[in-house]
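Its record is quoted verbatim for completeness.
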Amino acid sequence: MNCGDLEKFLIPLPPTKAEQEAIAEALSDADTLIESLEQLLAKKRHIKQGAMQKLLTGKKRLPGFSGEWKVMRLGELADIRSGGTPSTAQSAFWDGDILWCTPTDITALDGHKYLQETNRRITQDGLKNSSAEMIPPQSIVMTSRATIGECAINTVPVSTNQGFKNFVTYEFCDTEFLYYLLMTQKQGFVSLCGGSTFLEIGKTQLIGYEVRLPETKREQTAIAAILSDMDTDIAMLEAKLAKARALKQGMMQELLTGRIRLV
């Protein structure tokens, strides 16, 4: 598009500069609201990151808790299960009732914690004729190939493809605490894959991977509750920001076309 094309381009325009300024002011106010929400959201995320670094390492203890944290292997905290893919050549293995999770399903959560739906499903025959395993609710599914360490807590029974290692937590380990703890271990997991062109962490490596955690499940649960509350605040702000952006978009479509006139 050249200058000549732009000079001939027709646009709707309010008849007075005063109306133009009023429209611009209304949209500017919407921009100000969006900017303030973005800043508050960034601050909340920063605060949560700091809280994770302190609470999940024992640097800061919650009131009423004391005693040394213990070092345990992940294999002592959860039954670690793998995934698999049924043959795509067998239609009888697909479009059944069993949720089948891929890394795309985790990406679609956009950082949110809970997984309750997947894009694809498999049948009981597909499950039996592959290395996929059933993962009960309130477990943790974690990507273990290419992108390593992205986690979610499944609220319903699922299976996964081979790009996952899944943690079915034992009774003495709080699932939500382990979820947050795993999210802080990404660099440690990646370091175990050093030298590989295609990054992948295996079940044996994860079973022996050591972490520090509170001795009592009660303290684990208390820490997880604080971080979960922060997640709730962040999710509410994200929803408010999305609403503000949609509102501004709607205002632009109405005010800049003359469909709605300011009083």
Observations:
- The first helix runs from residue 3 to 8.
- DSSP finds nine helices and ten strands in the chain.
- The radius of gyration is 25 Å.
- The chain has two domains: 27-66+215-263, 70-213.
